[in-house]
Amino acid sequence: MKDQRLAVLIDADNVPYSNIKEMLEEIAKNGTPTIKRIYADWTKPTVSGWKNVLLEHAITPIQQYSYTTGKNSSDSALIIDAMDILYSDKVDGFCIVSSDSDFTRLAIRLREAGMKVIGIGQKKTPQPFITACDKFVYIEILKMESISESETTTQVKGKAKIQPKALNRIDQTLIKLLTESVADLADESGWTFLGELGNFILKNKADFDPRNYGFPKLLPLIKSTKKFIIDERIAGNNNIRHIYLKVK
Q1: Coil/strand/helix, residue 61
Q2: What is the pLDDT of residue 162?
Q3: Rounded mean pLDDT of 87-98?
Q4: How far apart are CA 170 and CA 173, in angstroms?
Q5: What does the alpha-carbon distance between residue 236 and residue 190 come to, in Å, rounded to a whole number?
Q6: Beta strands in the chain (DSSP E)
Q7: N or C: fewer beta carbons within 10 Å in the chain?
Q8: How far apart are CA 86 and CA 96, in angstroms?
Q9: 3-state class of 234 per DSSP?
C-alpha cells in the first residue's frame, strides 16, 4: 500500500512546542510528512520556544505579522496555504496541529475534497474542530506516553511495565459506543472482526483512542470492560491470529 503524503501545518500560537518530537512521531504513523510548515508572528516573545526546534525537525517557519490586537493572525496564512497545497495535488492528506476552532471550516473543506484530515491539539480543543477531522489526537496523551516510556526504560529490570496515565475514565458512554459499534458490525452469528472496529468507531468519534483511557491498543481496553466474549481464530498457513468479539 502506498504511503500517504501529508502536509503538516502547525499553529504555533495554540500548541506547545515541548512535545514536537512526539507529535511528528505520531504523524509518521499515518503517512510521510512531505510538507512541514509552522505559522506565527515570530517577532513575538511568546513563540520564541519554537525557534530552537524548527531547524532540528526541518519545519519551515511562515511569518505572519499581527496587525490587530487579540486576533490570531496566523490563522489566515495557514488556511490560504492549505488551499494552495490542496490544489497543487502534491499531498494525500493534511495534519492540522492546533487547539483552535477557527480551523473547523478548513477541515470540513479539505475532507469534502477527498483529503484525509488528522488533527492534533490539546484537551481544551473545541468539539467542532475535533468532529471536523477524520482523526484527532490529544497532545497530553503523547506527553504521557513519552513519560511512561522514559520511566519504563529506567526502571529496575524485572518490575512490571508502567501503565500510562489516562485522560478519560471508562464510563457508560464509552461502553455504549463500544457495544453499539460491535453490534452494527456483527455478522449473522453476532461476531465482529476487531480489525474493522477501530476505524468504524473513528467515523463516529474522531478523538477515540484507547490511549485516552490508559491502554496502548483497542483489545486490552475491550477486555477491561468485561462486556464482550473474545475469540482468537487462526487464519491461513502462517498461523495469523484474527480476533473476533461479540457482546455478552
Answers
A1: strand
A2: 47
A3: 96
A4: 8
A5: 22
A6: 5-11, 32-40, 60-63, 93-97, 116-121, 135-138, 192-193, 228-235, 240-247
A7: N
A8: 13
A9: strand
Q: What share of residues in the chain are helix, strand, coil (percent, to 5)? A: 40, 20, 35
Coil, strand or helix: which one is 193?
Answer: strand
Select from 38, 1, 31 the least CA-distant residue to 117: 31
Torsions phi, psi for 174 (to 5 deg): -65, -45
Other beta carbons within 10 Å of 238: 7
96's grid cell:
492540522
Q: Are 105 and 88 contacting, i.e. CB atoms less than 8 angstroms apart?
A: no
Say what the pTM is.
0.87
Q: What is the pLDDT of residues 166-201, one digit of tens each?
A: 889 999 999 999 999 999 999 999 999 999 999 999
